[in-house]
Design goal:
two-stranded antiparallel ribbon; 26% strand; elongated; alpha+beta; 99 residues; 46% helix; four-stranded antiparallel sheet
Length: 99
């Protein structure tokens, strides 16, 4: 398997699968999103997580994580996020909280 521009190739032939920049999952389609100033090709599940974070505010979500959670996995589970999305939200929220 080889990945070129998020597209999965097997034996030199393009497949109908892509790799999400955020979670690394192999999916059938991606969307292009601005993720904290970087253009990324992400799956619909990750896009929903980022949309929720933009709605709620990453600083607020970071403070909730900091005060109420011991693990990223539990935070991700409670907010219906993938762990990779949760980590990005927490990191961005930390940056915003330190400003």
């Amino acid at each position: 398997m080889k990945v070129i521009n998020n597209r999965v190739y097997l034996d030199g032939k393009a497949t109908n699968e892509y790799v999400c920049d955020c979670c690394g999952d192999r999916v059938s389609s991606l969307c292009c999103e601005d993720v904290y100033g970087e253009e990324k090709q992400i799956c619909s599940e990750c896009a929903e997580g980022f949309d929720y974070a933009m709605e709620k505010g990453t600083k607020d979500l970071y403070l909730i994580y900091l005060n109420d959670y011991l693990t990223v996995s539990k935070f991700a589970e409670d907010y219906n996020l993938s762990e990779s999305v949760a980590r990005l939200i927490i990191e961005q929220g930390r940056i915003e909280a330190l400003k």
